[in-house]
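Workshop exercise sheet. Pairs work together: one partner reads the sequence aloud, the other fills in the structure field after running the prediction. Swap roles for the next sheet.
Pair: D.N. / O.F.
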Amino acid sequence: MAKIKPLKKKEPLDPETALTVWQQTVAYVHDNIRQIGALALIGAVVIVALSGWMVSRNRAEQEALSLFSQALAMMEKIGEKQGDNATTYEAALEKFKTVHQQHPSTKAGKAALFYSGVCYFHLKKYDEAITSYKNFLDSSGSTLPYLKAFTYEGLGYAHEMKNQYAEAITWFERQKQEGSGALSGTTLLNLARCYEAQGDRARACTLYQEFLEKQPNSSFKDLAKLKTATVCTKAPAATEAPKS
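Structure field:
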């Protein structure tokens, strides 16, 4: 086994050597003062820029949130009045589009894509709703996770309205996987409805029954009971014609 060579002790820096090093440093500074000054200035600019970016970022977030709140307030008024709500949805949609166009990187700007999808859906523009919902999923990343399950549901509804039941089922299944509580319960109804539309009564029946088991106090329980009574009832066996 090779012997480990002992490390040489580092010689202490004597005053003369220290002075020489200092003189060399001073000479370097004098020779490169412009470059060093430029580097120092760049460092200062970076610090100021970062500070300015934070201030600008906060200002952008505040501006985006202000516009977003105005659009959301419009949607909240829809439930308070009777009649045609298309005009209100269109006005809210324009606000949400402005929020995203002006502040796309803010949380409000990203959430505006989701709410644009909601507006498009109520305006019966289902293709545009699907595009907005998907754009929200693409841009939001790990932010706004609480809107993801609602987005899957919105995509399911939009495809269902286009009679694209297979696509609707795909999105409702994602809603079922990532939703929770009452939201995951309504997913069972959404899936049951699509399977029923496809003619798969057995699968629809199972889902309606599962909903009643998991959500016995839901406001939709009467609907589920009615569906269970009709979908789950087997058609009577065909009787043979009497022999002549």
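Discussion prompt: The CA atoms of residues 65 and 108 lie 6 Å apart. What would you look at next?
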